[in-house]
Amino acid sequence: MNAQLAGRIAQVVPTLLLVSLLVFCLQHLMPGDPAIVLAGEERGDPVVLAQIRAELWLDRPLPLQYWHWIGQIAHGDFGISWHTREPIAKLIAQKLPVTLQVGGMAFVIAVLIGVPAGIVAAVCRGKVWDYAATAAALAGLSTPNFWLGIMLILLLSVHLGWLPPSGFVPPSEDWRQSLATTIMPAFVLGNAIAAILMRHTRSAMLTAMSQDFVRTARAKGLSEMGVIVGHALRNALLPVVTLGALELGTLLSGAVLTEQVFSIPGFGKMIVDAVFNRDYPVVQGVVLVTAFLTVMLNLAADILYVVINPRLRDG
Amino acid sequence: MADRTIGPRYEALARFLERRVAVAALAVIVLFVLAAVFAPLLAPYDPTATSWSAIRKAPSVAHWMGTDENGRDVLSRVIFGARASLLAGAVAVAIAAGIGLPAGLLAGFARGWIDAVLSRIVDAVLACPFLILAIALAAILGPNLTNAMIAIGISSAPRFMRVARAATLEAAALEYVEAARAIGNPPWRVAVFHVLPNIVPPVLVQATLAIAAAIIAEASLSFLGLGQQPPDPSWGSMLNAAQRFLTQAPWLAVFPGLAIFLCVLSFNLVGDGLRDALDPRA
Q1: Quick one: which of A94, A263, A272, A92 has its CA closest to A182?
Q2: ipTM for the predicted complex
Q3: Which residues contact B77 (CB under 8 A, 6 or more apart)?
Q4: pTM value?
Q5: Cis previous bond, A185, omega within 30
Q6: Which pLDDT tens digit goes with each residue over B50-86?
Q7: Shortest Cα distance from A19 to chain B (angstroms)?
Q8: Would you call B73 helix, strand, or coil by DSSP?
Q9: Is B132 in contact with A260 (Cβ distance < 8 A)?
Q10: How many Å from the N-terminal Cα to the C-terminal Cα in chain A?
């Protein structure tokens, strides 16, 4: 097992380096000269420009620039925002927890909807409930989440007045208000993942229920409920949990839109605002951090899979 | 089921036609395509013509889907919006397949270091969430529909490469490919004439599902203001404008969203139907 895991961990290093190289290239494709932007009022002064270029290593050859940049990233220095002049690392540290709160809630909602729906669909295979759950999952995957958000605002905020239509209150300030402002975006964000989890759970349950040990459990005279929960589900959930962890990308992509619809000051809104402010270092920082998070979470999911699964543990 | 003299392609077609839901979805797609092509003939009004006497009017006989904040006819805008969405779906997927298919074929056929390098690049690109990468690319290229299509196409390419690579690995192990090699065909000839036809089915399924994803992505980018620019209609940008008038004119938010939903659902259903028809083992 250790060799297997070591191999998997070793694979992450070139991937991360390539990601950083891609983002570095992205940075050089972006329009605008950083020195001119940062010089502000003094952009006409060649001495100031040269000074800034020297400071940012922009006057060195590209491989050296890359090396310098990677070193700074490794120390948590993502540069400064062209728009607010604040360190990007600080901005990310402010915005990321907001997205993680909504995303965490979304994931819980997705599991609470997707896993039971998948179990019911598998147990009632070929019957009305199976078709209903499968159709609902397909509808969930085909609905643009920003439209779902707008429709929910229309229903729950405009018509019924139950929930605030937009805004965000941190849980440290008032946890009830925080819940009220995040429950709708979390549901919208969780919807697509619920659909994916439902499909995974259904197929994993169908596989598990056709296995010998389930037949043995039935033959022992165990109740159908006991067979489903105690034997089939236990075996089916493992791949579902790890596959669920791989949906972080879906979650972060979705967060861009839901945060825009619900005016939540998170990570997703940060990249959109940065694009419109032509704040390219922030765009670059967001891409780098999301890619890093995705690679690390995929690794964690793979490790978890090996650690939990006894068949792989001894391999 | 099918006559023995009938080829596998016809068998697959027969299996697809047996799936009524998928066929109905295909009919819906055809309707959307016809609406997009014949938009100038079908739309009752000019989609960009403003009318100060008809601002935010609820759906009526004159305006089936109502009018928007500038007095433009929503139905006409939804019909013309099909052009942006379907074009974005088709062009983005053509770009994605144009990059991903040759790369996947090369990686799966050549193996070795070429495969290792291409696969690591794909891993790195896939590590960036799809929409975030598309936003970053659209930001570099500048916000308009063409650039949005390019950004979505590049962001979708890695998935095509993976599908094409896996299918190539499978096809390259088949006996007749071995035979084609053994009689002295050069590698490129084996790859293009013997392996390529075999990886078409999975790539076709991937393409159909990718069109659905690309249509949502175009709507998303246009919703954020990074795709189709006003006053040209796109379902996504219509929803963006609609959000400002939710209390006064809720119909503005309903119809463009329904159009996206119906169109994407149809492509997903056809994709699922094709997968079942082309791979009878699944």
Answers
A1: A263
A2: 0.87
A3: B47, B68, B233, B238, B256
A4: 0.89
A5: no
A6: 878 878 888 888 888 888 888 888 899 999 999 999 9
A7: 5
A8: strand
A9: no
A10: 6
